[in-house]
Amino acid sequence: MPAQVEPSKKTVLVTGFGPFGVYKVNTSWEAVKELYKQGLGVDWELVIEEIPVEYCTVKSKVPKLWEKHNPHLVVHVGVSGMASELTLEQKAFNYGYEKSDVKGCLPDANCCVHGADECITAGIKMNIVCADINNSDSKVKAVVSHDAGRYLCDFSYFTSLHINKHRTAFIHVPPLDQPYTVQELAEGLKVAITAMLKQIEEKLQ
């Protein structure tokens, strides 16, 4: 009797950002690394990647990551000093990038993807994800946002939404220990990603 072949696992790609400004250690990358330690369960292949806070790197690297991993879901994670909960971003904008990156550079014409729509809304319903988080046993609470700011977070989000808006998400995390530990942030990310995958899977049925 021939041996049964296990179906290949579907990939979830999660990115965090490198240092910038006052964030010499970027909470987003620390939380993503901790998430990798915790894992997403046996059914999912978790791939993580640190992305420098550079427009040109995001513009070239993010599409290559999609091509390389063919992910079932991409979740970009960034830090926000204004956040006190997991902040689930519902959409991203194509124009208005007037703040220089860590190399002092700006994108051409302050634009993310030339010729693309001014705004893209994610196919994943963040209000449902938010409710799933807030109704879970996680210590971390969540809110929904409709403006990720015009910096690398929004820039990376739009880049991925332009590739596939139904399999892309962005989550802002608060700075470390304000109020959550890195372990708590990772647990919150895990709940959020599980909720997102549930939505994607339900649409495929």
Automatic annotation (TrEMBL):
The active site is at residue 153. GO terms for molecular function: pyroglutamyl-peptidase activity. One of its GO terms (biological process) is proteolysis. Keywords: Cytoplasm, Hydrolase, Protease, Thiol protease. Pfam families: Peptidase_C15. Gene3D superfamilies: Peptidase C15, pyroglutamyl peptidase I-like (3.40.630.20). CDD domains: Peptidase_C15. Its EC number is 3.4.19.3. InterPro entries: Peptidase_C15 (IPR000816), Peptidase_C15-like (IPR016125), Peptidase_C15-like_sf (IPR036440), PGPEP1_Cys_AS (IPR033694). It catalyses: Release of an N-terminal pyroglutamyl group from a polypeptide, the second amino acid generally not being Pro. GO terms for cellular component: cytosol. Belongs to the peptidase C15 family. This is Pyroglutamyl-peptidase I. It comes from Potamilus streckersoni.
